[in-house]
Amino acid sequence: MFRYRQVLAVPGMAPLLGVSLLARAAITADVTALTMYVVLGLRMNYAAAGGVSAAMATGMALGGPLLGRLIDGRGARGVLVGTVVLQAVFWLSVPVLPYAVLLGAAFAAGLGMVPVPLVTRQAIAAMTTAAQRRTAFALESVQGELSYMTGPPIVILLAAKTSPNLVAWGLGAAIVAGGAGLALLDPPLRAEHEADAAQAVRPRRREWLGPRMVALLLMAFGATMLLGGTDLAIVATLKEAGQVSWAAGVVAVYGIASITGGLVYGTFRRPLPTWLLLGLLGLATVPAGLADGWQWLCVAGAGAGLLTAPTLSAIADGVSRLAPVGVRGEATGLQSSALSAGFALGTPVVGAAIDASLPGGGFAAAGLAGVATALTGYLLSRRAPARPRPPRRVSAAPCTSGAAPGRPG
To answer: Which residues span the membrane (predicted)?
Structure first.
């Protein structure tokens, strides 16, 4: 636990993680809140709800790199304030929008979602030393698991017990509060020794978006494709066994195991290769297809869950190390987009596997997708040196075109 005490003792780290947890729990539940509103508030079918959810998810996937690039150029505070205002307007207006307008508004809201994970990951990279960074990113991945375990269930419970309109307003208020708190904290996105990055030209994409970075983004996509597909396979398996009421319990076991694995991984002195963690996660997922009841799914979930947070932590750590300081926001945005795209594609791909075989086939499809992307990531990562080319320096002559500003905020 010494490593965690050391990270939390970093000035500003504890408030950063606390505010970020509030905002991420709300953001994790945004699609769930829209689903509940369309089904319970507008009294439309789940296909209609899926359309709104897909619109927001697509917007979030596309918005990550754009917001990251804005953060690189203008700093975090201005971007946070702008997105907070957009979210406030959207969630206040949700209960009065007709369905057709809600579709477009959800896409716009996803495009301008408060970039909490982007800012948090950049701040962690800036505020920690190289020796602390893996432990800090392990805490960040645990934070993501806690968000997933608390946000959506609370929204579902409140929507069922109260009004979906009130839930939409409450969720919007939580997103706005978290984003505003992060803007007030205004954490540093560059370390002190990176302050002279203002004198560096923004590197071209081909200088940093090489095979190793592509490998990490591909593995981020594969990891969340696996996780999204696993959720669906759990529900399908329990429905087949007549035990669907146990789905929340099984998911909770996965989450607790993931938190445990993340905390243990954060104490390691040396990192494990990302491709190895993802490959092991995929292999550990496949046997869950043999489970015929919630008890065995819990056992399988405990094994696979132990590798989930470490895998996501290794991906975030790798992206932060490979990205030059002048494009760290854009690189982190690409990471968020890859994660979102994986979740979006994992459900239909695994659903097709379940329809074509048995519920257990969903676990096989999800696990093999993880193994395949891990293998591809390993092969790609061997094609380039570990470190990106450093950015070129600007001459004494004034030139502002494409230059990255000083420390954001």
So the answer is: 49-68, 99-120, 166-185, 214-238, 244-265, 272-288, 360-380
